[in-house]
Design brief:
Two copies of one chain form a homodimer. With 316 residues, chain A is α+β, with helices and mostly antiparallel strands. Chain A has eleven helices and twelve strands. β1 of chain A pairs antiparallel with β2 of chain B, so a sheet runs across the interface.
Chain lengths: 316, 316
């Protein structure tokens, strides 16, 4: 691969953008930030071949798309808009220029969906497998939503359906940025995060940051059909897949119970306009508690212990 | 390595910082930006084992330090202060927790030298070699210095001494941030960049962005003693090492000739206060030309062709 040819192609593939007064050709890029009180929101995330994707199965374009979407999902988690992303790519020396282009186009496709400019990058070639790192700058008109504001008696909710993403959704998910921005407008959200490692691992993190606990009703978990499919094959109940599988990239959030009628108006009543348009289900799955422990609610309302992270592997 | 133990250690190793209202425990970090007209400056840079360092020779701490300093050198190049950095680390599965800590401490040591908080990170483990990616957010009170402002007849200058960094300086260099900020205060700098790939490759990039050319007097290049040492071994003239070797991480900049007396007062006169304290030599090496070609000045003032990038390898 002729590196300069690729870099020339790259700069032609990145359109000029009034929000990016200094672009990829300089030592750093400059981005105008329409920020909340001069707060810059930052995130970095990597996607590695045979860890986060598998080039034996997935295309370069799919890998690039996932690498960017993983990072953008964290923008959704904070209810902010991505203002810019940067890419760092360690390319295997077996990759040709077409591979590099496809990878970049996957990244670009994901970023463009959210009108997010790619403002910088670094490409190296080595004799190891592909590593793609994405850094995002977020900008928010409102105070960003963090993991630390959940209060006792808050309702716990999730977007979408959970479990079984390994069957394909872990490559094709869409970051819930638009939904997060809508929810943040509609609801007095007290805390939010995205589900990347699975509810069983992620909810304890939110609770730890908020210094609270939680009770989850497993029978209320929105189970994805993929979790059902997996269940048929591995005999692990679909509900446990929904609880423990990673890479759902759905939103987990809390709000006061008093706000629930906004999300769930009386039967027959219309959903709030913007929310109805989004057509992504939102489900209440539990309640925040003052004690800093987490429990599942058993069939007879007894409190069951929280499943340990990774239990689904060690139990086999 | 127990990942959670390392993450716990990591969060204790990152002190709380009033400039970082939301820290590494959330989906994104928030940084207060004391910025110039809401401009955020961004950079991403990777350092790979056996490409940018060699763990068979260099310690984890030295690798971390270099990874961060490479990125901070681009802050110097724009004459901005680093407001925050983020780290993404693909750790080989043969690394133990001590390795991961040492790597992080190297990163931290480099960042602390410039009072720059580490605000986020991502650690994965894989069966490949170490890859460290650093993303920096820069903040500037002045318009950032770019590569695109050089004007015909501007003087071309470099900081420090060039060549032979492979003997060790490529791991131990110090980003010229303080010097860049001082220079930007003292001089009407028209363009600036850092020398990462060597003058022979980097100056054409600056010229291309500025739509100008350049004439360099090779006999005026400040030659590092390391270039002399290399020359004894490989019989390539030290001056060619100074011209073509990479990883000097010195500053290359231009300013109007009329400003030169600020840098070079009459013999015997004192240097401007701040600059004298820095004690890093600054050398004029050439002049910007209106034609968009680059030349070396020969011993009889004839114009010689610019050395091709990588010539020193292909000529052997």
């Amino acid at each position: 691969m002729r590196e300069n040819d690729f870099l020339n192609w790259l700069s032609s593939a990145i359109p000029s953008d009034p929000r990016v007064p200094i672009n990829v050709g300089d030592d750093m890029a400059a981005v105008t930030l329409d920020s909340y009180k001069n707060l810059a929101l930052l995130k970095i995330d990597q996607a590695l071949d045979k860890v986060h994707f598998d080039l034996a199965i997935h295309s370069a374009r799919a890998a690039g798309k996932k690498a960017v979407n993983r990072c953008l999902s964290d923008c959704a988690a904070m209810a902010c808009s991505p203002a810019a992303i940067m890419l760092s790519v360690a390319l295997p020396n077996t990759a040709d220029e077409n591979f590099a282009r496809e990878l970049f186009l996957g990244c670009k496709q994901a970023a463009e969906k959210f009108n997010c400019p790619i403002v910088g990058g670094d490409t190296s070639i080595w004799d190891q497998r592909l590593a793609v790192t994405v850094a995002a700058l977020g900008s928010s008109h409102n105070p960003p939503l963090t993991r630390s504001g959940a209060k006792p008696n808050d309702a716990i909710l999730v977007t979408g359906k959970l479990g079984g993403s390994i069957l394909g959704r872990h490559m094709t998910f869409e970051p819930r940025i638009h939904l997060a921005l809508e929810l943040a407008k509609l609801l007095p959200i007290t805390s939010m995060m995205d589900l990347s490692d699975g509810l069983a691992q992620d909810l304890p993190r939110l609770c730890a940051r908020s210094k609270v606990g939680a009770i989850i009703a497993p029978q209320q978990l929105p189970i994805h059909p993929d979790a059902e499919t997996l269940s048929v094959n591995d005999n692990i109940p679909a509900g446990l897949h929904a609880l423990a599988d990673g890479e759902d990239y759905e939103l987990l959030f809390t709000c006061p119970e008093s706000a629930l009628p906004i999300l769930f108006p009386s039967p027959g009543a219309a959903l709030p306009g913007n929310l109805a348009k989004l057509a992504i289900p939102i489900t209440r799955i539990g309640t925040i508690t003052p004690e800093t422990t987490l429990h599942l609610l058993g069939p007879n309302d007894q409190l069951l212990p929280w499943p340990k992270a990774g239990w689904e592997h060690s139990s086999k």
